[in-house]
Structures are given as structure tokens and as C-alpha cells.
Amino acid sequence: SSRADQTLPGGSRTRRTRAIRRATSAQKRTMPSKLETMGGVSSDEAVPKTIRQGLERMPLYVGAGLAVGGLASLVLARGGGASRKVITAFGGGAGLGSAWTRCSIDLEELLEEGK
User: Fold this and answer.
1) Do 109 and 31 form a contact (C-beta atoms < 8 A)?
2) Distances (CA, A) of 15 to 1, 4, 68, 79
3) Which pTM value belongs to this model?
4) What local confidence, expressed as pLDDT, does residue 102 receive?
């Protein structure tokens, strides 16, 4: 146990930390897996379904990135021109990267459960 756990009298912090760890591990055991939440989809269909969901999510994320980038370009580049386009494009790229990352994380979680 670390020094931070021993700061309170009687070791109450240590007991609290252990209780939190037990509750977290119990929660992990009772939470449904990605495959279970996909509504009875077989594992052969789960990966394409996850990729399809990622592709459906992509326009939303890119649109949100373009909107945020466009608003940021209005504030940051008052002169207009190419700098506004670059900032807006950066927002769209950030949205695309965010969608890609989310899909990648979903796939990794799905494939880890299959092991």
C-alpha cells in the first residue's frame, strides 16, 4: 500500500480503496460483453456490423468537426480567405480521425472478447 493510502487514521483509506476495487471488478464481471449487446448477432456478423456502425457514424463526426472548425475559423481568421478553409478542413479531419478511432476501439473491444 502506498503512503497516500496510509494518510487517514485507522487505515480507512486503504479499506475504502479495496472496497472500490472489489466493486469495480464485480461490475466488470456483470457487464455484458459487446457480443451480448449486439442482439444475438453471431461473431461472424459482429465485425462487419461494427464496421458498418463506424461508417454510419463517420458523416456525423465529420460534420460536427466541420461545424466546429468553421466556427473556430470565424473567430481565429477574421480576414477570411485560405486560412478559414484550412481551419475548417482541420476540423473535418479531426472529426474523421475521431470516427476512425472510435471504430478502431470498438473493433479492439469486440476482438478481445473473442479470445
Assistant:
1) no
2) 11, 12, 45, 60
3) 0.62
4) 95
